[in-house]
Amino acid sequence: MKQLGFQKAVCSFTGRPPYNPKDLLKLYLYGYLNRIRSSRRLEHEATRNIEVIWLLKKLKPDFKTIADFRKDSKKALKLVFREFSKLCDEWELYGKELVAIDGSKFRACNSKRNNYSSKKLEKNIKHIDEKIETYMQQLDDGDLAETCDKKPTAQEIEKKCKY
């Protein structure tokens, strides 16, 4: 985790230890796979969903911790996404087509859409990076939209009940 650039991958000796970045990364990957982009929804899933409870070993981070992890680890998360894509490609998890040639004569068609150059690959990688950036921006926007969904504390509820 330290090599990937996650902060707090190594705990300090003083104070309370932070959440392990591995656990928060698992939570974000779970959210990505289940189309949950909101930090508050991820917090809710961590207390309600048995899969997430098992995945996080009964940890229950609050929405602010989850959002701050993403905000503080943007570069590391992008690197994880990139490395994860490479790993899936190495394990041949992406569908690729097999072409078999049987000796028939075919007319060659080398259109611009059917070939790849280094310039085209760089353009595709840039497009993927833009998609990652868009996804991260959607996560930020979701958190901003939920700032008005503040849960009242027990003291605030008691105070309102007295009036």
Question: Can you characterise this structure?
Answer:
The chain has helices spanning 21-33, 39-48, 50-55, 63-72, 74-90, 118-145, 154-162. It has one domain. α2 crosses α4 (63-72). The chain has 7 helices and no strands. The mean pLDDT is 82. The termini are far apart. It is an all-alpha fold.
Structure, briefly:
By secondary structure, this protein is mainly α.
Order of helices and strands: HHHHHHH
- Assign the structural class, choosing from mainly alpha, mainly beta, alpha/beta, alpha+beta, or little secondary structure: mainly alpha
Q: N- to C-terminal separation?
A: 51 Å
Rounded to the nearest angstrom, the radius of gyration is 22 Å
Sum up the overall morphology in one term: elongated
Helicity range: 55-70%
User: Poorly predicted ranges (pLDDT <50, ≥5 residues)?
Assistant: none
Estimate what percentage of residues fall within beta strands: under 5%
* Rounded mean pLDDT score: 82
Give the count of helical stretches.
7
Number of domains: 1
Main β sheet profile: none
Oligomeric state = single chain
Distinctive features:
163 residues; mainly alpha
Give the SSE map.
Elements: H1 21-33, H2 39-48, H3 50-55, H4 63-72, H5 74-90, H6 118-145, H7 154-162
